[in-house]
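Report of the visiting student (M.T.), summer placement. My assignment was to run the structure pipeline on a short list of targets and document each run. The first record concerns Glycopeptide antibiotics resistance protein.
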Amino acid sequence: MSIRVLPGFVALTLAIVVAALAFLPYVARQYRRRGQLGLGHALIAFAFLCYILGLLAYVLIPIPPVGPGFCEAYSWVRPQLTPLASLSGLPATFGSGGVRSLLVDSAFQQFAMNIALFVPMGMFVRHMFRRGFLATIAIGAAATLFIEFTQLTGIWFLYPCPYRLFDVDDLAANGLGAVVGAVLAPLLRLVPGQRTGAAPGVPRPVTASRRLLGMACDLLVMWLSGNVALLIVTAAVGTGGAAEDGLPWIHAVAQWGLPAALIGTSLVVRRATPGQQIVLLRLTSVDGGRAAALRAVVWWISGFGAFGVLQTAALIWWAPAVWAAVALAGLHAVSLLLTADRRGISGMLSGLHAVDVRVGRDGPAGSATPETDEDDQTGEGAAAEPQRQSGTTASSRRGGGSEHDRPQNTRA
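After the run finished, the structure tokens were exported:
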């Protein structure tokens, strides 16, 4: 793999791993802080994660081995402390060949790339963390100082001598990039899926996408908890042994059986799977009352219970069972799209509905002021919100209100 591509590949791989580990708490926080998961917010957050890891990867990679003569091999690395020294030859280049020669000049390209490298820094810091213009520039300057001193000190003295160049021109270019990014940060407001339409405590409709998100969270819970259980069992009993010793059974049950049982326990005790709790859903009977425990068990058996059994069987003796498990998951996902009330297969078999946990709540939660996004800081959202609140209050006093305000529309 090319040395130019390797840092990007490493950064993307790490970003996917970190995103998988942080996905559950991120979704739970978004639903409790904003009332819903905004796809735009999630995409920007993932892009920021990729950017930060990519920045670190390109600073650190390649990591050369330390051996005899290491410092002698990098004796040419000396700090460049003369401002704009790398651009000293650009006037002559421009005079001899014009703009075309300037654009292909390596010194100009490097300076321009260093500017572009920190444009996302300024955009993300100002948009995501709501920092002012000067604060954003200061954070960008601090970040580029950290990077340059990391190179100057040989990754903070982990190496006996620096192997990358400290260059004040890089500081200037990166700082300029942060300024440009701070100016361009409002462009990120154009990414759809960032605005919240109501206060966090107001119930949201139970859509197919919300149900699918809860299922995805449950699958991730099973995968993470199953691998943790597998590591514990492997450490306790090892990996050797034949089938008659029972070790394959132990490992298979630990990886998929125990997580499925975890989902079932949550359903019986809390009347909601872990994924449903993350997206603020719970199971109720048709009349809106508390779901019976037996019906919750039927919900589990027809869904994650059967999925766990098939996955366990695939690890023990019948490998094709994994495809049956995948088909079962796909069938449940499609059924959410085809059933008008989003009950899905488990809901039809158990007679239960999934509703928003905020249905029927009284008190300040439903009337709390929603969190304002960057989109609303221009005054447009602030002006519209009192009108929405007054309109809702007037409708409720008249005893009417829109269909979206009625609790029954939050059923699955």
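Strands lie at 281-284, 353-356. The two ends are 49 Å apart (CA to CA). I thank the supervising group for their guidance throughout the placement.
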